[in-house]
Amino acid sequence: MNGAIFSITTGTIIRVVLILAAVTLLWQLRDLALIVLTSIVIASAIEPAARGLMKYRVPRVLAVLVVYALFFGAFFGIVFFLLPPVLDETSLLLASLPTYLETIGAAEVIKGDAILETRSLINNFSLADTTRDLNTLLSGLSSGNFLAAISVIFGGVISFLLIVVFSFYFAINEKGIEEFLRVMTPIKHENYILGLWRRTQRKIGLWMQGQFLLAVLIGVLTYLGLSILGIQYALVLAVFAGIMELIPVFGPILAAIPAVAIAFVNGGPAIALVVVALFLIIQQFENHLIYPLVVTKVVGVPPILVILALLIGAKLAGILGILLAVPIVAGVQEVFNDLEKARHIPEQENG
After folding, report:
1. Domain boundaries, the chain
2. Listed range (16-25, 41-50, 114-123, 174-183) with the worst mean pLDDT
3. Over the stretch 266-317, which tens digit does the pLDDT of each residue have?
4. For 290-351, what is the HEC assignment?
5. For residue 145, what is the DSSP state?
6. What whole-number distance in Å separates Cα of residue 191 and Cα of residue 213?
7. Do 284 and 218 meet the contact criterion of CB atoms below 8 Å apart?
């Protein structure tokens, strides 16, 4: 019986040490890595819009500036006009939440002490931490101090500015991201990495645009439907429904639960059934028209992977992790597809 002989060369040891050093360095600079990745995703998201303007002979720099101006105009417009009423409704809803839980029979499942504790936690949370942060946000906006507001939303002014600067650079320089990848990639893998990036970039841009469109449409439809039915907290429920569109399959179900509960408490079983019908109609509209055309066919990532990616991203990096989750999974899926194709090529040649 011949024993297997293993030999470890000096080159292998050096490669392992370099890989470990790179992983360690990346972990130490993970905040910067998140900023760079977020910048790349944002630059990829605005690429289709910039290219659309360039078809009309608009210079690339001007096209990118126009897209950025529209984006930030919409962002600050939403913050100024939409956020205050959403916060007001959210505060009222949180204050009434224990009452709703008791009314719908949650007290039978949750013990009375837990209900009282929940009420105390909600009151303390809304009156202390959240109120302080929201007051900082709103006072910053009302006084024109955008830096204070940005620090609350993005977790730091410097991070926000770096994301803007990096994404703008990557966007105005058509080959900016490719040049960055050329620097970071070994020469023998350069062509593959660049090809992989071009495929992934298209998916990232179209996915983010489609997801934004999906969230806005569902939010507007939900708000109009709930407002017509006279449901309380229609605005905050609509915003919640738009945010839940990030979660495939289960997102619409999670969005419907609080709306149905509020309708049941305030209007009884009849109005609750009408709200259920409303969400079913909106979900059918989404499932058969928007989601298949905009998300599934563009990204091609199975819903279960999207859910896992969002959960992992939120756990590891919060809001930025959620933003990066699906783009990273789309890129990883492209790699696995390439590996699968490469595995089948020898089989075809032998066959």
Report:
1. 15-184, 194-338
2. 114-123
3. 888 899 999 999 999 888 877 776 666 555 555 666 777 777 888 888 888 7
4. HHHHHHHHHHCCCHHHHHHHHHHHHHHHHHHHHHHHHHHHHHHHHHHHHHHHHHHHHHHHHC
5. -
6. 33
7. no
Given a cut of 80, whether residue 95 has pLDDT beyond it is no
Buried b (16+ CB within 10 A) or exposed e, 172-183: bbeebbbebbee
Unique residue bearing structure tokens 């507001």: 149
> What value does the CA radius of gyration of the chain take, rounded to a whole number of Å?
25
Q: Is 35 exposed, middle or buried (0-12, 13-18, 19+ CB in 10 A)?
A: buried
Residues 6 or more apart whose Cβ sits within 8 Å of residue 169 = 176
Q: For residue range 138-162, what is the model confidence (pLDDT) as tens digits?
A: 454 444 455 555 555 555 667 778 8
Structure tokens at 216: 């806005």
For residue 8, give the amino acid letter. I
